[in-house]
Amino acid sequence: MKIRFILMMLLMLPILASAQFNNHQMQMQQVRTMHQQMNNQNQKWASERRASDQQWQMRSMMSQHTNKIQTAENKLAKEEKK
């Protein structure tokens, strides 16, 4: 009886090892897929952040130019009153 059990276990060992290996490969593929998705999301966020920074810089420049123009117009208005 023990010999049959040992023989059955020896026969099943490659099947169990193969199943475990396949499970490991599937888990590794899932990990690679998850990392790729995370990288894609990080690239998307970085792109959105760059676009937002560019918009902020443009608004800041426009505001500065508007202030300079307003200051120059005020100065001209004062000079015209004199």
Summarize the structure.
The chain has 82 residues and is mostly helical.
Note down, in words, how this protein is organized.
By secondary structure, the chain is mostly helical. It is built from 1 helix and no strands. The protein starts with a helix and ends with a helix. The mean pLDDT is 91.
Content of β-strand: under 5%
H/E element string? Answer: H
Which radius of gyration do the C-alpha atoms yield?
35 Å
The gross shape turns out to be rod-shaped
Task: Name the poorly predicted regions.
Answer: none
Task: Tell me the distance between the termini.
Answer: 119 Å
Q: How many DSSP helices?
A: 1
Q: Roughly what percent helix?
A: over 70%
SS class? mainly alpha
The main sheet comes to: none
Oligomeric form: single chain
Average pLDDT: 91
**Using DSSP, what is the number of strands?**
0
